[in-house]
Amino acid sequence: MPEGPEIRLAADKIAKVLVQKDLTRVEFTFDHLRQFEKTLSGLVVTSVETRGKAMLTYFDDHWVIYSHNQLYGRWLVASKGTRPDTNRQLRLAIETEDKAALLYSATDISVMRKTELSSHPFLAKIGPDILSEQPDIDTIVARLLSPTFVRRQLATLLLDQHFLAGLGTYLCAEILFFSQLHPKTKASKCSSAMLRKLASNILSVTRQSYKTQGITNPPELVARLKANGITNKEGYRFSAYGRAGKACHTCGHSIERNNIGGRPIFHCPNCQSL
Q1: Helix residue ranges, H only, 228-271
Q2: Known catalytic residue: 34?
Q3: Which of 2, 218, 264, 269 is catalytic?
Q4: pLDDT one digit per residue (tens) for the chain, 274 residues
Q5: 101-104 — which CB contacts under 8 Å span 24+ positions?
Q6: Out of 3, 6, 95, 256, which one is annotated catalytic?
Q7: I want to staple 173 with a disulfide (CB 3.0 to 4.6 A). Which of 59, 151, 234, 266 is the partner?
Q8: Of the residues 8, 51, 53, 99, which is catalytic?
Q9: Would residue 53 show up in a list of annotated catalytic residues for this protein?
């Protein structure tokens, strides 16, 4: 499933073709949403926001389209009147005078007033979005130490959208690696300095992934790996995620893979011994 940075990049792409443009047509393929086609057609998209792995497309007159890509959903952009060559099923089309933003395969789509967002079943439960709402280090540390989260294993906690919205398996592995924390460690066992380092990495690794389209390693490490002949993006993109059995870039120990809560977790047992 795409994680927060990938959804934010998709939102940027959609915003570029829709924001402050007069809409000529809005089309839904789900029968229960077709009643909104006339309402939204002719309005203007004012902004496109993300909340974790969900996207919110805001219209003037206080209307909002909520969409969640889930596992297979994908936004594509095309010239008006054309459709990409794909076997995916079109769910939503938003057209301007020259462009079309097209959502394929997603099934979790709804239309509501802006005032109804806080009561949406998904949005009402998730934590702050790292990229859209930009919580600071103190806010994240306070959440780590809250009674709800302080005794949770960090790997399962970081994957819980109720804690922070937008993190997934690759971000979880990379954040814990750079924080030098074992996936099973609990916040209750961490010092104040460890928690602040973890909170800082939650912000910096996620934001770097957004800026670099999925590369979490520091730029100097990426340059060194490339200089050593590693040209495959998967070879220099991550330090831990997806690298089971390969040498840790920091200490040379083999990266291990385990399953926690049914999700794959990668870590270096030497660098992440706590």
Answers
A1: 233-236
A2: no
A3: 2
A4: 789 999 999 999 999 999 999 899 999 999 999 999 999 999 999 999 999 889 999 999 999 999 998 888 999 999 998 999 999 999 999 999 999 999 999 999 999 999 999 999 999 999 999 999 989 999 999 999 999 999 999 999 999 999 999 999 999 999 999 999 999 999 999 999 999 999 999 999 999 999 999 999 999 999 999 999 988 777 899 999 999 999 999 999 999 999 988 899 999 999 998 8
A5: 101/14, 101/17, 101/18, 101/75, 101/76, 101/77, 102/75, 102/76, 102/77, 102/78, 103/67, 103/73, 103/74, 103/75, 104/73, 104/74, 104/75, 104/76
A6: 3
A7: 266
A8: 53
A9: yes
Q: Is the pTM of this model over 0.70?
A: yes
DSSP 158-169: HT-TTTSBT--H
Give the closest residue to 205 by CA, choosing from 3, 2, 51, 53. Answer: 3
Q: Where does residue 198 rank: exposed (0-12), middle (13-18), buried (19+ CB within 10 A)?
A: buried
Q: Which two tokens stand for residue 132?
A: 């859209």
The owner of tokens 């302080």 is 150
Domains in the chain (CATH in brackets) are 4-119 (3.20.190.10), 137-267 (1.10.8.50)
- Which tokens hold the place of 134? 């930009």
- Catalytic, out of 184, 207, 224, 263: 263
The CA distance from 125 to 102, in Å, is 27
